[in-house]
Amino acid sequence: MKTEILPDLQESAFLTDTREENPYQDIFHEGSTEEYSEAIESAKQVVRNFLENNKKPFSGISPAALGSIFAEVDFDTPLPDYKSLFEEVETLYVKHATAFHLPRYIAHLNCPVVIPALAAEVLISAINSSQDTYDQSAGGTLMERKLIDWTGREIGFGPDCDGVFTGGGSQSNLMGLLLARDYYAMKYLKHNIKLNGNPPEASRFRIFVSEKAHFSNQKNSSLLGLGEQSVIKIKTDSRFRMDSELLEQAIIRELELGNIPIAVVATAGTTDFGNLDPLAEIALLTKKYQLWYHVDAAYGCGLLLTTKYRYLLDGIADADSVTIDYHKSFFQPISSSAFLVREKHQLGLIKHHADYLNPKEQDYDELPAQINKSITQSTRRFDALKLWFTLRLLGKQKLGEYTESIIDTAADTAKIIDKDPHFELLSDSDLGVLVFRYINPGQTSYDPCELNQYIKKSLFNSGEVLVASTKVNGAFYLKFTLLNPITNLNDIQNILNIIKKHGTDYLSLN
């Protein structure tokens, strides 16, 4: 008779406790291959359940309801077997995990992932290489470096480019501003910030960003000791892109005030609108005023894969540094990101030698060490292997086709929303973000912000559709973020109809 552990999962060897025979079977080694195989098979079944049982992107469970179950967890009392463990994790996590792969998930910058990258995750976790030095990773180091070189060529950088995989876009943006700060201090003030801290002039350093740029710019400026006051926000045009004329005016104004412009951060794909700043125009201004030019392409990096829309990144090759998030636009599992510089010697500004890890006398052409390029991670997992699996099996063209289909679907969706009298579209998108709100053209006795807040909350509580939201000039709007090539116009129309239903419900109650 078979004992059911999980749906479709037969009795496991875990039900027989053999720890007395092999007290180290829990440790991954040559004596635990059977236990490892059984654990992976059980995990695979949970993933199958997740794919087969999720018909909506979220269960709708409240934090209070879920939290009450967590209150029963006692870490001082281990579970008896894997059956109990997987049942617990399904209850606490899997059954309520957000299903990013479903077409009705259309909220944040979470892409569905490709299967080759998931296969790579198995190797990454089991072999557990650390990417800081060659003697801890060997081929992993060379794979990462080759992928950085490939990405640099796709950006348009020359053979002197370099970079490193990072934990995410915010970390990469921090590296861009750190190099901008240290480069200016070293070149123009002859001051080594790494050794001596910020110079007195640092209080006058100024960094220019779009008013729609990522919030990490303010956080990173604070971390760098420059304060949020160092960030000058530039107003945007009608499509919410940085206005290059206003940028130049702001640079001149800060110079006249006695402040010190050091960098411009351009956004290649804003979180709220999916539009790209005029990269080529900004590049000319950074050259004119001798400023560090960082491009935050965490979202828009997917355009590197395309033929049809690659022109939107014109000007990115002139950047001094670039942020890339493969886990936003290359269909990679979290985390998979990178920071690249056009000239590799700039990374020397952050290099620090430790005798036990990367001694100064070591020949780094002979024994490369990626830790010399990282600012916040010593031990660092081999995330690059996921991208390697993806490119080697699927290729750039396939990924590019996915990206182009997403952009095309977003453009068609914008037309549908714009033509519908029950919706107000704020802007179209270069990529796949559409900001809009539900309205009732025949009624004026309602607050549109309260109406759309009600819709957003109702959708989340039911879990049937997940959309995002934002505020523009103080007004509340709904937001679609299209990152799934499977999502089609029928899905979009169904989502819009559900939004209308909740909007109608609100108006009938008020």
UniProtKB/TrEMBL annotation:
EC number: 4.1.1.86
GO cellular component: a single term: cytoplasm
Cofactors (names): pyridoxal 5'-phosphate
GO biological process: amino acid metabolic process; carboxylic acid metabolic process
Pfam families (alphabetical): Pyridoxal_deC (PF00282)
KW Lyase (keyword) present: yes
UniProt enzyme class: lyase
Keywords: Decarboxylase, Lyase, Pyridoxal phosphate
GO MF terms held by the record: diaminobutyrate decarboxylase activity; pyridoxal phosphate binding
Modified residues (N6-(pyridoxal phosphate)lysine): 328
InterPro entries: Aromatic_deC, PyrdxlP-dep_de-COase, PyrdxlP-dep_Trfase, PyrdxlP-dep_Trfase_major, PyrdxlP-dep_Trfase_small
Keyword Lyase: yes
Family as reported in the entry's similarity comment: Belongs to the group II decarboxylase family.
Protein name as catalogued: L-2,4-diaminobutyrate decarboxylase
Species this chain originates from: Pedobacter cryoconitis
